[in-house]
Amino acid sequence: MTIIQAEGLKKTYTSKSGPVHALAGLNLSVPQGTVKALLGPNGAGKTTAVKVLTTLIKPDEGRAHIDGIDVVNNPKAARRIIGASGQYAAVDENLTGFENLEMVGRLYHLGAKTARKRAQELIDQFELTEAGNRPVKGFSGGMRRRIDLAGALVINPKILFLDEPTTGLDPRSRLALWEIITQLVNDGTTLLLTTQYLEEADHLADNIAVIDGGRVIAEGTSDELKAQIGGHRVVVTLVNEADAGSAREILARHGDGAPTVNDRTLEVSVIEGPRALQYVLSDLGQADIQLHDAGMRRPTLDDVFLTLTGHRAEDEPSTNDSEMEKAK
Amino acid sequence: MTALSQPTYESVGSPFAQLLSDGWIATRRNLIKIKRVPEILVFTILQPIMFVLLFSQVYAGAMNVPDYVNFLMAGIFAQTVIFGSTFSGAAMAQDLKDGIIDRFRTLPMSPAAVLIGRTNGDLVINSISMMIMMGTGWLVGWRVTTSVWGFLGGVAVLLLFSYSFSWVMAVLGMSVRSPEVINNASFMILFPLTFISNAFVPIHTMPEVLKNIAEWNPVSALVESARMLFGNTNPEFPEPTAWTLQNPIITVIIGIVVMLAIFVPLSVTKFKSISSR
Fold first, then answer.
1. Arithmetic mean of pLDDT, A15-19
2. Number of folded domains that form chain A
3. Counting one residue from A and one from B, how many pairs have CB atoms under 8 Å apart?
4. Residue from B36, B94, B103 whose CB has the most chain A CBs within 10 Å, to mutate
5. Is residue A327 pLDDT above 50, yes or no?
C-alpha cells in the first residue's frame, strides 16, 4: 500500500537573481513499511520536498497525501501521524533532554503522564541518560541529534521524515544513528529520508529517488540504478605512473567510454565485465606494464549520479565511496 | 533496543482547552529558560535597580523638576517594560534560526501556543522587573498617593501595554533573519521613542518640534496614565495640549486594544507560514 504520495509538486521562490524552482513537478510514491531515500546535492529540492510533506510549506502546485490525508488541506490531521526531524537539531538548549522530549509529548497531546513515561523510555532506549537531567546546552552535536531524533519518535509515528539525519556527524555517531534507524524500520515505520551521502542511501534505503533541479531524475533500488548506467567497471592500479599513457590506450580500446585516470589508478566502464577484464589484462601484459592491483567493480551511486546529472554529488569524496563499496 | 511502546492519545477537549494546555506547555518552556539563563535574570533585576538609582540620584539634583523621584518612576517603569517586551522578538528570531520552530510546526499543537508562551515569558520578566523597581523606588522615596486601586491600575496599564507590545515584537522577530537584527533595531527605535517623551523630563521644557512629537508619542500617554493612577502628577505643570495626553488612560486602552487586535492574528498567521531557511 502506498502511504506517501506526491504528484506534480511545484514550488518556486523568488530570489535576487530570478526565480528559483525548488520543486519543478516532483512525483513520489512510498509503499508502507519501506525506506525511501531522496538523494541529491545541495539545492536539489530534497529539503523543500520534505517540508511540503511535513506541512511546513505549501506547494504552489501539486498534491501530496500521507496515509490518505491531504497534507495541504488538512495539515493538522497529518501532523498527528508523522514524526519529523529537520536538518538542524531542533532542541531547546535550555531544557534537559527529558524536558525536551516531555514537551514534545505534551504538544502531541499524549497527556502529562504518558508524555513523561514516553520521554523516559526514549531516554533509556537512545542511551541519553547523560543528557536526561542536564540542559542540552553543552552537549555534542551527536547527542543533540539523537535527542532530536528521539523527539521525532515520541508518538512512535507511522511515518517518519528525516532530513539529512547524519549531516555534520562524526563517523561513529553516524553509524550509531544508522543502527537506530534500521531498527525502527524493522519495527514497521515507513521512512522518508534525504541525504547527500550515497553510501547512506545505499545502506538504509529500499528505494532511492535521485533528485536534481526539483525533480526525480531516476528511481529504483540501488542495484536497479546501478544497472541503469551499464555494467561493470574495470579498475587497474599501475606500479609505475609512467605507464599511465599506454595503459589508458588499452583501457579505452576495451572500454565503453573514456577511461578516468587518478594518479596510478585507471578506470573504465565496460559492457561485459569478465571478458573485458581478460582482454585488458592480456594487453597490459603484452605491453609489459606492471600492475599493483586489478579488478572489476560494480558501479557506485556516485557513478550513477555522475552519469545522470553530469556532476558529482557534492561534499562526498568519491574515494570513500569506492572504499565502502569494496568493503561490502 | 526493544520495540517502542505505542503511546495512546488522550482527549484534550475543546479547541479552547487545547489552546490553554498548549499555551501553558510553551509558557513553561520559557519559564525554565528564565530560570536557567542567568543573563536574563541579571538584566531583569539589576538593570531596573541601576536605572532607578542612576536617574533618581545622579539626575535629580540637576533637574529643575520638583519632587523628581515621584515624577521619574512612571517613566522608568514604562521604559523598562517596553524594553522587556523585545525579548519576544529576539527569541522568535532565535527559535527560527535554530530550527525549533520547524519542530513545533510539525506537531498537532495550536499555532498560537508558541506565541502565547513567548509573550507570557515577557510578561513574567516584566512583572519581576516591576516588583524590583517598585521596591527600589520606595527606598529612594517614591510613594503612591492614590489608593490600592490606583496602584493596581497603574501596574495593570504598564504590564498590559508591554504585553501587547510583545505581540508586535513577535511579528517583527518572525520577519527578520537573525536575533541580532531585532536587538539592534529595537535599541535604535525604542531609545528615541522613550526619551522623546515625558518619561524623564516634563514635555513643556522641550523645544517646539520635540514637544509635538513627545505629546503624541504613545509612550507619553502610557507614562502619564501611570502617573495619574499612582498619583504622581505635578499640578504646577501646564495642561497638555494634545488630546492623547489629556485623556491618557483612554488613549492607552485604545492602544492596547489596537495592538492586540492587529498583531495577535497577524502573528498567528505569520507563524503558520514560517520555516527555518
1. 85
2. 2
3. 111
4. B103
5. no
How far apart CA B182 and CA B172 sit, in angstroms, is 7
Q: Which residues in chain B are contacts of A86 at CB distance < 8 A?
A: 99, 102-103, 276
Closest A-chain CA to B17? A109
Scanning chain B, the segments in alpha helix (DSSP H) are: 15-36, 38-53, 68-84, 86-98, 100-105, 113-139, 148-175, 179-195, 208-216, 218-230, 243-246, 248-271
Q: What percent of chain A has pLDDT over 90?
A: 42
The pLDDT of residue B7 is: 57
Q: Please calculate the CA angle B45-B46-B49 and round it to the nearest 5 degrees.
A: 95
In the three-class reduction of DSSP (H, G, I as helix; E, B as strand; rest coil), residue B199 is classed as: coil
With CB atoms and an 8 Å threshold, state whether B10 touches A90.
no
The count of other CB atoms within 10 Å of the CB of residue B176 is 17
State residue B6's pLDDT score.
57
Find where cell 504520495 sits. Answer: A5
Q: Helix A97-107 and helix B15-36: axis angle, to 10°?
A: 170
CATH of residue A97: 3.40.50.300
pLDDT of A89 strictly over 80: no
| pLDDT tens per residue across span A261-297 | 888 888 888 877 788 888 888 888 888 888 888 888 8
Taking CA–CA distances from B8, the nearest residue in chain A reads A110
Tell me what pLDDT residue A316 has.
Answer: 41
Distance (Å, whole) CA B160 – CA B24: 19
CB contacts of A92 in chain B (<8 Å) are 29, 33, 100
Does the complex come out with an ipTM higher than 0.90? no
Sheet (strand A82-85) strand order? A82-85, A159-163, A190-195, A35-39, A207-212, A215-220
In this predicted model, what pLDDT tens digit does every residue of A51-65 receive, in sequence order? 999 999 999 999 999
Are A199 and A215 in the same domain?
yes
Q: What is the pLDDT of residue A130?
A: 80
Give the range of the structural domain holding residue A322, as residue numbers without chain letter.
228-327
Instruction: Note the pLDDT tens digit of each residue in B126-160.
Output: 999 999 999 999 999 999 999 999 999 999 999 99
Nearest to A156 among B7, B10, B25 (CB): B7
Cell of residue B225, nine digits = 496614565
Distance CA A280, CA A254 (A): 7
Give the position of cell 555522475: A306
Note whether A114 contacts B10, CB cutoff 8 Å: yes
Give Cβ neighbours of residue A53 (< 8 Å, ≥ 6 apart).
Answer: A4, A6, A64, A66, A71, A161, A192
Kind and range of the H or E run holding A60: none
CB contact under 8 A, B22 and A155: no
End-to-end CA distance of chain A: 31
Q: How confident is the model at residue A26 (pLDDT cuts 50, 70, 90)?
A: very high
My answer on whether A12 and A161 are in the same domain is: yes
Q: Which amino acid is it at A207?
A: N
Which backbone phi and psi does A314 adopt, to 5 degrees? -75, 165
Asked if residue A156 and residue A233 are part of one domain, the reply reads no
pLDDT digit string, tens, across residues B97-122 = 888 999 999 999 999 999 999 999 99
Whats the size of chain A, residue-wise?
Answer: 328
DSSP 3-state assignment of B104?
A: helix
Q: Sketch the domain layout of chain B as residue ranges.
A: 15-271
What the block records as the C-alpha cell of B109 is 499543537
